[in-house]
Give the backbone structure.
Amino acid sequence: MKFFVDTAEIDAIAELNALGMVDGGTTNPSLIMKSGRDIREVTEEICARVDGPVSAETVATDADGMIAEGRELAKIADNIAIKVPLTWAGLQACKVLSGEGRMVNVTLCFSANQALLAAKAGASFISPFIGRLDDINIDGLELIADIRQIYDNYGYETEVLAASIRTVNHMSECAKLGADVATAPPAVIKKMAEHPLTDKGLDAFLADWAKTGQKIL
Ligand code: E4P
């Protein structure tokens, strides 16, 4: 499973990138707002650091507006994936932009039917939002499984990009379900390294080592 990093914070991206943990990036208007930076400037920096697709989101609500904004965002770098919302207008924009050979990430997907439409409109990525479904007591992971099955049934090449990831469990479950990509906040990716038995085991090893009085260096 590919890891995309869901942030516009450059330092956090750089830290994960140094370990080879970053296969791409995703941003959205809320993340740009949080960064406090200019969308072009910060997206260009992310694109330069990340070896893989970086999603930048349109904000128009009509298809023509999304297409124009998408073309503008695509000028930032060659690895831009244009993000459009899963509305009828977004699907129209996806069809046009993907027809121009551009990567399109269709976002705010909350149903298998929506994912099916995005694949038919030529999306490179579909972004089902797990956490926001969980928030309203609908199993977000079940949606990942449903989309995986539907895409596999018909050989759609659209990649399943699990989004709105809130927990480390979401990451391992998405990998088990066969999501192509998971985009997660840096803190979630770092938390995947943690286990209480690792901490406990390390404490015990260090205590015993101290008793030997030896040194390695
Ligand atoms: C990614 O592309 C999405 O914009 C992001 O994962 C949304 O996450 P949230 O529901 O935690 O805001």
Q: What stands out?
A: The longest strand covers residues 103-109.
